[in-house]
Every structure is written in structure tokens, then in C-alpha cells.
Write a structure and sequence with these properties.
The structure is a single chain. The chain contains one helix and seven strands. It is mainly beta and 115 residues long. The protein has one domain (22-108). The strands form two sheets. A five-stranded antiparallel beta sheet has the order 1-2-3-6-7, with no helix packed on it. Strands 4-5 form a two-stranded antiparallel sheet. The longest helix is centred in the N-terminal third of the chain and has 11 residues, at 8-18. It starts with 7 loop residues before the first helix and ends in a 7-residue tail after the last strand.
Length: 115
Amino acid sequence: MQAPAPSDLPVQQTVSQNMSQTLPYYDDNVVLMKTSDEAKIPVLLRLWDVTQFRYTNTLLGNSEYTDRWGAVRPVVQRNDFSLNRNLIQFVGHIFDKRLKFNLITWASKSSATPA
């Protein structure tokens, strides 16, 4: 095992001294990666999430209903949670504080009926 090169030691010490909090931590968003402002390549990566869950319970209601035309229809008996929508964003900057990025992923359930 080789000893680290002398040029690597100051960089490692600077990074460990500047990291006052362990990652990830919360600061308006979940901070996944952050380097110091004086780093050779400054990086900030934050995670932002909006999720909508739905609880559906039709077990205690009627077993059928009458629609507007007078037809009697059955009620689907269910009691479950579902994930309706999910928006995840990765935001931050890299190389320079002025070079910002925003990566968005979006998921939506196409139907409210059980599979």
C-alpha cells in the first residue's frame, strides 16, 4: 500500500474541514452532494420530491349505485393505498455556481382502478 501523494493531502484535509455536516442532510431540499465554494470543481446536488398518495375505501358503502340514466351498477369493493403522482427533481450546479441544472422525472398512474 502506497502512501498518498503529498499533493493529495491538502485537498483531502480541506474537503474534510469544510464538510461540517454529513451527507445527506436537509437544507430546503435533501442535499446529496456538496463541495466547498473554493473547490476546483464546485458541485451541489439536491433532491426534491413531491408525491401524491391516495387512500380508497369503498368497503363500508353501498354495494351498488344508480347512475343518472337509472341503471343499477355494482360498486367495486376496495380498500387500498395507491401512488397517483410522483415528481422527483435533481437540482444544483456544477463547475461554476452560475451553471445550474434541473433534471426532472415524472410518474403518473394512468388509472384509478385496481389492476
